[in-house]
Specification:
heterotrimer; A mainly alpha; B mainly alpha; C mainly alpha; B: mainly alpha; two-stranded antiparallel ribbon; about 70% helix; C: about 75% helix
Chain lengths: ~625, ~500, ~100
């Protein structure tokens, strides 16, 4: 009964947080307790509904091929009709579950974390808006709905990164996030328009049917272009190279936001988009190869940066980029199953790590540099436990969640391309290394007396514990229930472990852990000496390959420079012509004015002179009348 | 209700208000403002009633009133609205209503100000509801003069003096209308060769079907109209009056000008240019598309480097008009829908923007962006208005700007892929300058020098609430706007399809 | 015998003198006097034509009386203006009264 209701009222899942947003925004902003209560209640109901949806999907045998679609017309005009609706299949049901769960936990966490903040109500309003738009994105039935919510989650990200709007760095970061994703959205929009022109529809279900036929008839030329353009969206949103630059800066937002938006949910929207339109990508092997390489490169690239970063949240941000690259890589090699599996486990353990990092920063009064921390395991045992679970999970140590999903990805990659497999394994090694580096530096070693840490309040601990549980058991869910039969594209995917690959990656992870312990835990090798030794490498990595600097320079030199040139043109050429014309008129008037002396007597003289001339002329040209006058009788 | 002259009433409401104001003593400041507000409220009510009563299924001209006027010249007083003019009418009164409240703090010669404002609004209303070219021109001229006086007396100056900007604005618009006049007289004399003379738009629109208008004639006359309406719409390179003019004008005039007056240009291009001279429109459409791209990118880049708030929004409105133009130039139903929808959308958002800038200027006495900052601390409501207008301006879905823009892109992409691509890249630059303004004006550390600046309150909130809610409501339910527009465009679709199918004329060279 | 031509000649001479005065004199009083001369020349014409062409009706004579009346009032207004001008500007020299000139 309940699952039936939930399935057919799945549109309530995004609507409820939206209502929370409106109510908090207009009425409850001033009351922290009520706004938090409302937001959490709504999230809770959404979560329960999405559990119902998930159960319903399984019970009612809704599969990828037979989704449940329900839609209503939204805009209907000549040449364009757009629907809004819901598209429920196992993939979206899984996403609904992940997003509502993480969103609920993060909101509960934020009650403790944001306590006493001036904008508490505003924060929960934004969080609710984010939940609403993200959930709307997940159930999108067509490209337009997808794009609409895609942009709106971008707005929420903008608002939440810039939440501390008194901080100039937060303003800059929010602007950068919006701009960078806008560039991707430009491509996405173009791709969508191209599809609209070619097919006359943007509906996922209709395109699923239309695209294979089109490919058979006309080949893949236009579609390749469209698919690449669409992929620009995910590149920006999911922080893939070269548009990854906004994600680390996005850490300027409050930590719960980083956990929710910039780790677990919004940034995976790009992955989700590719999965959603896999019917397009699966027809285009060349594009798939590009996706795989972009993902693989990003994963490795971000990992090399993460190794030298010192801010706890930035390390996690680069790790997020790297893991997103992993997911893209999995998609590129054609394994939706592995990608979505990793998406799920990553959402759990990365949100967990961010929340733990938030707890650390909360305890240390917003200190972020890991080299200034140390020995926190004594004063913050729960946080330490949570972080350890997260690190073990991401490093791929069994039996934690990341081990299984990473193994799936490595397996899928190894079947397609050896070079990519090597990249993925190297990345896994680096991941384990920098994660243990973080763990050892923050929690081990001697305590630093000036820090005076304290353990997090209970709401924060609650979320940490729940997420820890998911980070531990998340990897088993698929093995208990046939994940690969539900979450897939095309044939059902295999599940289970490939022991060779699993063993390789496990050994590497343990080696990385040992190396990290050698350098950062035991103090046997000095990290400073290493940095000195490889100073070029260290600097390049520490400065993120100078990509931010390059973009800034490009923006200032070209975009603004071009603007300045055009403004000059506008002022002196376009407007110059206008003003020149005005001046010409003025000059002409000025010249003509000289002729008008203003002396009445001169005018009179001219007048009489003219009359005289006319009279003389009349006399000469009209002899007959003059004669009659002269010869008259008088 | 057939007998109630609804449109006349809508047009006369401001005039009656203005007449009434002229009998009030100038000291009765509050009453003057109340009367103006009441007048516009009546007009708004009537228009909303008309919007509700308009029969979508029937379409076409409704609420038609027709009276013979100067029969010897073929001038008659025909009023009527369809799906194209009704949104424009709604826009006019919405913005008119808001301007009254946005000007609530005017104390200098408030009586004259509100009289002129109401006359101005009556003029704009008239241009959108009349179906006779002569009356159209008449109302148009009625608009220009009050604007000049208002800029000179209540304007403010920054880069250029208000006298300069007022003069530039007026002369530019009059020059445009001179071209328009020549074109219209040309049309009037040539549409019907044998004795029958008429200014009626419907009758003139049939002249082409009768084959009275040769292709060469249409191309020439459309060019004249294009210059006329183009300068009104700030088509590149006839745009330079717009930023200077807005910068000099008082808030209300900027709002009306950017919000409504520019739209007369687009409206005229469709109603007069396209419907009466379709072959001319077809010939010039590729050129218009090219100029539209110039509008979008050129003005967008310039907006990036402006330091005066009003200049940013001035150039931004030039940039947005490029979208309208390219939607028009696509000459298909989708593009046309988008163009009209975008005119409405841009009107609302730019009016809101100018209203907010007006508040900021009133309270901080500066519009210079580097001098501003952190205003979200002291003026959260104004900041909300800024955010709404800015986000709508950069085409955020869920606000009014997105669907019209998307529609334009769909329409234009089909006809001019390269131009459309360039124009769409405008969304990046729009975002760049809008975010720059938002970040530099609203965010950043609290500045103590603005601590004394009060947030908008009381009646000052009316523009924010009215325009803001329109932005959101029409954004979330775009069919409310697009359905109406579509009912005006749908009948044109066969006509446009035929136009496309017509043999490629000289215009074929440019495809 | 004095013919019409004689009258017309006298009137023409008088008129030319008036024109000369109006065009060359810089004193407003003189200009006004010259205008009177021109008007009188016209009067002579009117009366002369009337007498020689249609002696039986007195149209010309009546018309000239109208002219004289108008001329009188014109002088009255002109002199009044002149006084105001003199009072305000201390001069009746027209070259000095050039405020309206660009």
């Amino acid at each position: 009964m309940f699952n039936e209701y939930a399935l057919h009222h799945a549109w309530l899942i995004p609507l409820l947080p939206a209502i929370a947003f409106v109510v908090i925004g207009f009425f409850l902003r001033k009351s922290p307790v009520l706004s938090a209560f409302l937001a959490i209640t709504m999230s809770m109901v959404s979560f329960i509904l999405s559990l119902g949806v998930g159960y319903g999907v399984v019970v009612q045998h809704i599969t990828v091929e037979h989704p449940l679609i329900d839609k209503i017309p939204w805009v209907d005009i000549a040449g364009l009709s757009i629907n809004m609706g819901m598209y429920i299949d196992p993939v979206s049901a899984l996403m609904l579950f992940i997003v509502t769960l993480v969103s609920l936990l993060v909101q509960i966490y934020a009650v403790g974390y944001m306590k006493g903040d001036d904008g508490f109500g505003r924060f929960f309003a934004y969080l609710s808006l984010f939940a609403a738009t993200m959930l709307g994105l997940i159930i999108a039935v067509n490209f337009v709905q997808m794009f609409i919510f895609w942009e709106l989650v971008g707005l929420c990200s903008y608002l939440l990164i810039g939440y501390y709007f008194h901080k100039p760095s937060a303003c800059e970061a929010s602007k950068k996030a919006f701009m960078t994703t806008r560039i991707g959205d430009f491509g996405l929009l173009l791709g969508i328009l191209l599809l609209q022109i070619v097919f006359g529809t943007l509906d996922f279900a209709q395109l699923t049917i239309a695209i294979p036929e089109y490919v058979q008839q006309y080949g893949t030329g236009v579609l390749t272009v469209a698919a690449l353009l669409i992929f620009a969206g995910p590149i920006a949103k999911s922080g893939q190279f070269p548009l990854h630059v906004w994600l680390p800066d996005a850490m300027e937002g409050p930590t719960p936001v980083s956990a929710l938006i910039h780790a677990a949910t919004m940034v995976v929207a790009g992955v989700y988009l590719v999965v959603r339109v896999f019917f397009l990508y699966s027809m285009l092997p060349n594009v798939m190869l590009i996706i795989a390489w972009v993902g693989g490169f990003t994963a490795c690239f971000a990992a090399t940066i993460a190794i030298t970063q010192q801010d706890i949240k930035r390390i996690l941000a680069y790790s997020t980029i790297s893991q997103l690259g992993y997911m893209m890589l999995a998609l590129g090699v054609g394994s939706v199953t592995a990608s979505m599996f990793h998406l799920m486990t990553h959402a759990f353990f990365k949100a967990l790590m961010f929340l733990a990092a938030g707890s650390v920063m909360h305890g240390l009064h917003d200190k972020g540099n890991i080299f200034e921390m140390g020995g926190l395991r004594h004063k913050m045992p729960i946080t330490f436990a949570a972080m350890t679970i997260g690190v073990l999970a991401i490093s791929g140590i069994p039996p934690f969640a990341g081990f299984f999903s990473k193994d799936e990805i490595l397996l899928a990659v190894s079947e397609v391309s050896a070079p990519l497999y090597i990249i993925a394994v190297v990345t896994a090694f680096m991941t384990a290394f920098y994660m243990f580096r973080l763990l050892f530096l923050v929690f081990c070693g001697p305590e630093k007396p000036e820090n005076n840490p304290h353990e997090a309040p209970s709401t924060m601990k609650f979320s940490l514990i729940i997420l820890s549980i998911f980070a531990i058991i998340g990897g088993y869910i698929p093995h208990v229930y046939h994940f690969g039969e539900w979450i897939r594209f095309g044939d059902a995917s295999h599940e289970g472990l490939n022991w060779t690959i699993a063993a390789t990656s496990m050994v590497l992870s343990v080696l990385a852990m040992a190396l990290a312990w050698l350098i950062y835990g035991s103090g046997k090798v000095s990290p400073d000496r290493l940095a000195m030794r490889f100073s070029t490498l260290y600097n390049v990595s520490y400065h993120k390959y100078y990509i931010d600097e390059l973009y800034l320079w490009l923006n200032y030199t070209f975009v603004r420079g071009f603007g300045k040139i055009l403004y000059w043109l506008d002022l002196y050429i376009v407007d110059g012509i206008v003003n020149g014309l005005a001046k010409l008129t003025y000059r002409m008037g000025d010249e003509l004015r000289q002729w008008q002396t203003g002396y009445l007597q001169q005018y009179g003289l001219i007048l009489f002179g003219a009359i005289l001339i006319m009279v003389v002329w009349l006399v000469i040209t009209a002899p007959i009348s003059m004669a009659s006058l002269r010869g008259g009788a008088y | 209700m057939d007998h109630f002259p609804l449109l006349t009433a809508i047009m006369l409401a401001p005039i009656i208000g203005a007449l009434f104001l002229s009998f009030l003593p100038r000291e009765a400041d509050k009453i003057i403002k109340m009367v103006s507000a009441l007048t516009m409220m009546v007009a708004l009510g009537l228009v909303i009633y008309a919007y509700e009563m308009y029969d979508f299924n029937l379409g076409g001209m409704q609420f038609v009133e027709s009276r013979a006027w100067i029969q010897d010249l073929g001038v008659s007083f025909i009023l009527g609205v369809d799906g194209i003019s009704l949104p424009m009418l709604l826009l006019t009164v919405l913005i008119g209503f808001s301007t009254v409240f946005a000007s609530w703090n005017i104390t200098k010669r408030s009586k004259e100000f509100f009289i002129l404002l109401l006359i101005l609004l009556a003029g704009v209303t008239g241009t959108f509801i009349t179906q006779d070219l002569f009356i159209f021109l008449l109302f148009y001229e009625m608009v220009v003069i009050p604007i000049y006086i208002m800029v000179l007396i209540w304007g403010s100056s920054k880069r250029v003096s208000k006298e300069y900007s007022g003069m530039k604005l007026t002369i530019y618009l009059l020059l445009g209308s001179a071209f328009m006049l020549v074109g219209i007289i040309d049309l009037y004399l040539n549409a019907y060769p044998s004795g029958m003379r008429t200014f009626s738009m419907t009758a003139l629109a049939q002249a082409n079907q009768l084959g009275n208008l040769s292709e060469g004639f249409q191309i020439f006359t459309f060019f004249l109209l294009m210059i006329g309406f183009g300068s009104l719409l700030s088509m590149w390179p006839l745009h330079s009056w717009s930023p200077d003019g807005y910068a000099g004008a008082p808030t209300a005039v900027s709002m009306i000008h950017a919000g409504v007056l520019k739209k007369i240009g687009g409206y005229g291009l469709i109603r007069i240019g396209l419907l009466i001279l379709p072959l001319g429109a077809k010939f010039w459409a590729p050129w218009i598309a090219l100029l539209a791209v110039c509008n979008v990118l050129y003005a967008g880049f310039i907006a990036l480097v402006q330091k005066d708030l009003k200049y940013v929004i001035g150039y931004s409105s030039v940039s947005h008009m490029g979208y309208v133009l390219i939607g028009f130039a696509a000459l298909n139903g989708t593009g046309m829908n988008g163009a009209i929808g975008n005119m409405f959308a841009h009107g609302i958002m730019s009016a809101l923007f100018f209203a907010m800038i007006g508040y900021v200027y009133e309270k901080t006495h500066t519009r210079y962006i580097p001098d501003l900052g952190g205003l979200a601390h002291q003026m959260p409501r104004v900041a909300t208005g800024f955010m709404l207008a800015g986000m709508a301006s950069l085409g955020l879905p869920g606000l009014i700007g997105f669907i019209p823009e998307f529609t334009i892109f769909v329409g234009a992409f089909r006809e001019y892929p390269v131009y459309a691509l360039l124009a769409i890249s405008g969304i990046i630059f729009t975002a760049l300058y809008i975010l720059r303004v938002l970040a530099n004006v609203l965010f950043g550390p609290r500045r103590t020098e603005f601590d004394g600046c009060a947030d908008a309150r009381g009646v000052e909130l009316v523009p924010l609430i009215v325009l803001g809610s329109v932005l959101v409501v029409f954004g979330v339910f775009p069919q409310m706007l697009m359905g109406m527009v579509n009912s005006g465009v749908e009948p044109m679709v066969p006509f446009l399809t035929k136009l496309h199918a017509a043999p490629a004329l000289l215009g074929g060279l440019f495809r | 015998m004095i013919s019409l031509v004689h009258y017309l000649t006298v009137a023409a001479i008088l008129f030319i003198i008036g024109v000369y005065g109006v065009l060359t004199k810089r004193n407003i009083v003189t200009i006004l006097m010259s205008i009177e001369l021109m008007l009188n020349a016209v009067n002579i014409n009117l009366v002369a034509f009337s007498r020689f062409i249609q002696p039986e009706v007195l149209t010309g004579q009546v018309f000239s009386i109208f002219t004289i009346t108008v001329a009188a009032s014109e002088v009255a207004v002109g002199l009044a203006l002149l006084f105001r001008v003199y009072h305000d500007y201390d001069t009746v020299h027209i070259d000095k009264l050039n405020r309206m000139r660009w």
